[in-house]
Write a structure and sequence with these properties.
This protein is of the alpha+beta class and 159 residues long. 36% of the residues lie in helices and 16% in strands. Bound molecules: FE2/S2 (inorganic) cluster (2 copies).
Length: 159
């Protein structure tokens, strides 16, 4: 086992982890942060997307030991972020989810995109979200929700 110390959703935590344990398993099983979903477990579907030091990563292909000394944010840590709440509201209003399995990853990716590129157009949103696979719906409501959220955030609408 290897000792790691990191920040998870603003809280500094220390754990002993298996050197081969993924960050996704660490978050789900040791921190009970089950909003980080596991689909493919080999970096292809985006269900496990979280941020590490503000950068979007696929937590199934990041080892927990690689997160030592880093700041991790999961979907549970974003409740007070205004832009994320605007995106959430538009996912809800636009029916941009069915089973919801992909949704935490979609939200995390969309939030990172609109943070880094507030003017991202539809083509850019489609391109970036294409790395997050939704098994049960089309991408039209998802992309529509992100576009609506972008506009609402720029207008200063309430989340
Ligand atoms: S579960 Fe990590 S990318 Fe699919
Ligand atoms: S809403 Fe079911 S996988 Fe996307």
């Amino acid at each position: 086992m290897t000792a790691i110390k990191l920040e998870v959703n603003g809280e500094t935590v220390s754990h002993e982890v298996n050197p081969r344990e993924s960050l996704a398993d660490f978050l789900r099983e040791r921190r009970n942060l089950t909003g980080t979903h596991l689909g493919c477990e080999h970096g292809a579907c985006g269900a496990c997307t979280v941020t590490m030091d503000g950068v979007v990563v696929r937590s199934c292909i990041v080892l927990a030991v690689m997160a030592d000394g880093r700041k991790i944010e999961t979907i549970e840590g974003t409740r007070a972020i205004e832009l994320m709440n605007v995106i959430r509201r538009h996912f809800h209003e636009k029916h941009a989810l069915q089973c919801g399995f992909c949704t935490p990853g979609m939200l995390t990716t969309a939030h990172a995109l609109l943070t880094d590129e507030p003017g991202a157009d539809e083509a850019r949103i489609r391109s970036v979200l294409s790395g997050n696979l939704c098994r049960c719906t089309g991408y039209i409501p998802i992309v529509g929700a992100v576009l609506e959220a972008r506009a609402a955030y720029h207008r200063g609408d309430e989340p």
